[in-house]
Write a structure and sequence with these properties.
heterodimer; A: 390 residues; mainly alpha; Serine Threonine Protein Phosphatase 5, Tetratricopeptide repeat; 2 domains; 4 strands; disordered N terminus; B: alpha+beta; Protein Transport Mog1p, Chain A; two-stranded antiparallel ribbon; 3 helices; 10 strands; 34% strand
Chain lengths: 390, 194
């Protein structure tokens, strides 16, 4: 529901979503075009798109989905400003949305959103900059208005076709196809502008390609976890609004190889800034009922070793799937988290419940008693007490 | 593009052929959710013809977006709470054979998060309770639907009986409506019997 509703809303609002991205490789990096601030809509199409975007932004003002923490907002904005430059980032209003999927968008009037699921999946400031720069690229190239115009033209043609011809199915297919191709062209253009921002920012330009390669792997892992064939398509279909991740990764990698070294990706700084948010982001991910994708993601996040929040999240993931073998694994992960000494009381709770479900009653009750000792005023203290007493 | 997606969205929200809504007369004990679960309301309710799933049934006073009392009657192992809108890309969690009562709020929370597309869904207090004569659980929850700003509050009671999940939920906007009909909803939920 989320993707379709969001895509529909995004289309209506003239926002250009990021998901899924391919572009021609530039021979050398052209200088960035001069930036014009305080641009105003000039014609009826643009004014309409801006009005809808303003309305969307008013909705964001009251939306409980917006994460308003000043420190996190300042950090993400800092990365945007370093990527696209201070003069470009000044007019952007940035909203971090609490939605556990990978996406970002930008409306015609300069409101940028990034979803919390993207923050969990990115690994460095360079990657975050790549995503934000891509979205800013759409804005700078005024794709939202172009897309709106092209779409209006397309739907006008279809409306007339259905009146004039009894069987206009073939024309409808043709017109629809051109709309989607147009979107793919825009995505490529934004990708290439995004990577140029990155090249000028001191972040390594290869970061953009890394993002798309990991997205492909995660989609494959999700499919396999759901007992489906990994259906990652390696060519864009007729209806695809975005280039495939593979073609995106390929042309971005080719472009980056032509750019000199670049500075540090600032992976450590990124992890430190996101650390206070990691437990919430992981909990959101575990609750998506996507075992394969979550397991893949945890594995990538643990590339430098399993930390306490990652072990705890993995325990929760396995316990929620709850096959007998999963419960054994879950108990092991909770125990590893507890051994590290800085696990939250909920690790004892998870351990106790996993053991109880796995018929290890005494050990399970002992862990639950430890949870109650450490968190006597927990919201579920009374139900856990009855499990211990039963 | 938008027309294509709009059609897809419209299909998502489409409800199956309705059997019609019906007034529930107070004082009679009646079976709900096509299951052995029975309740005895002491006030008037309206049963909606539209069902969220095979073994689900919704009652309301002012309309289901203002007060919604839903019964889930005997969900089997391996089945989700609702009819799945998109089984391929958004499968719902299912009832597990070894689930404990503490897994009921988790199953419910995850189902709502996926089906309603909102990460704002949270479970509050979880307490032991006798439900339909079995050892069960009572929990509160809060959420805001996708693209809305209206805060909704809920309260649920559930238990596993004979390996099947029985659950009664009541939810309404926190503003005014929740408090107005919570007593009537609790009375119905507490009258549940198997």
């Amino acid at each position: 529901m989320r993707t379709i509703a969001a895509a529909l809303a995004a289309t209506l609002l003239g926002a250009v979503p990021l998901a899924g991205a391919a572009a021609p490789v530039a021979d050398k990096i052209a200088p960035l075009p001069p930036y014009v601030a305080a641009y105003q809509p000039t014609n009826v199409d643009e004014r309409g798109a801006w009005m809808m975007a303003d309305e969307y932004e008013r909705h964001l003002r009251d939306s409980p989905e917006v994460i308003r923490d000043p420190a996190l907002n300042a950090y993400v904005r800092g990365v945007l400003c370093r990527t696209v430059g201070d003069d470009r980032c000044k007019g952007v209003r940035l909203y971090i949305l609490h939605i556990p999927a990978f996406n970002a968008s930008m409306t015609a009037n300069g409101a940028m959103t990034i979803w919390s699921g993207a923050l969990l999946r990115l690994r460095s400031e360079a990657e975050l900059g790549a995503v934000l720069g891509h979205e800013f690229g759409h804005f700078e190239l005024r794709h939202t208005v172009e897309g709106f115009r092209n779409q209006r033209r397309g739907t006008d043609v279809m409306a007339w076709a259905s009146v004039l011809m009894t069987n206009s199915a073939a024309l409808q297919v043709g017109v629809l196809g051109s709309l989607y191709r147009f979107d793919r062209g825009q995505e490529q253009a934004a990708d290439m502008l995004g990577v140029r921002y990155l090249a000028g920012s001191g972040y390594p330009a290869a970061a953009a390609a890394d993002v798309w390669e990991r997205m492909m792997s995660e989609a494959d892992a999700t499919a396999i976890g759901r007992h489906r064939k990994a259906d990652q398509r390696y060519t864009a279909g007729f209806f695809a609004t975005h280039p495939t991740e593979l073609s995106r990764a390929t042309y971005l990698r080719a472009f980056a190889s032509g750019v000199d070294g670049g500075g540090s990706a600032e992976g450590v700084r990124y992890r430190e800034a996101l650390a206070p948010w990691l437990p919430m982001l992981l909990t959101d991910q575990i609750k998506r009922n996507d075992f394969g994708g979550s397991e893949y993601l945890l594995g990538r996040l643990a590339a430098d070793g399993w930390t306490t929040p990652l072990l705890f999240a993995r325990g929760e993931l396995y316990r929620e799937r709850g096959n007998p073998r999963d419960l054994v694994n879950a108990a092991e992960f909770y125990e590893q988290a507890i051994e590290r000494g800085d696990a939250p009381p909920e690790a004892q709770r998870g351990l106790g419940l996993a053991l109880l479900r796995g018929q290890q009653t005494d050990a399970g009750k002992a862990a639950l008693r430890e949870y109650l000792r450490r968190k006597p005023d927990a919201a579920d203290a009374s139900i856990i007490s009855t499990l211990v007493a039963s | 593009m938008s027309a294509y997606r709009f059609a897809a969205a419209a299909l998502l929200f489409a409800t199956p052929a309705m059997a019609g809504n019906k007034l529930i007369v107070p004082g009679e004990r009646i079976a709900v959710a096509k299951s052995p679960l029975t309740v005895q309301p002491t006030s008037e309710w309206n049963r909606l013809g539209a069902r969220r799933g095979r073994n689900a049934e919704t009652w309301t006073i002012d309309g289901d977006s203002l007060n919604d009392l839903t019964f889930y009657g005997g969900i089997e192992t391996g089945k989700p709470l609702f009819r799945e809108a998109n089984k391929r890309s958004k499968p719902l969690p299912t009832v597990g054979a070894t689930m404990l009562v503490t897994d009921i709020p988790v199953l419910f929370e995850n189902t709502y998060r996926i089906a309603l597309g909102t990460a704002t869904m949270t479970v509050g207090t979880i307490e032991p309770v006798t439900f339909a004569g079995a050892k069960g659980v009572r929990f509160t929850y809060d959420f805001v639907r996708e693209d809305e700003t209206l805060h909704r509050r809920g309260e649920a009671r559930g238990a596993f009986v004979g390996g099947r999940l029985y659950l009664v939920t009541y939810e309404a906007p926190a503003l005014h409506y929740y408090d107005r009909s919570v007593a009537a909803a609790r009375q119905v939920a507490e009258s549940a019997r198997l």
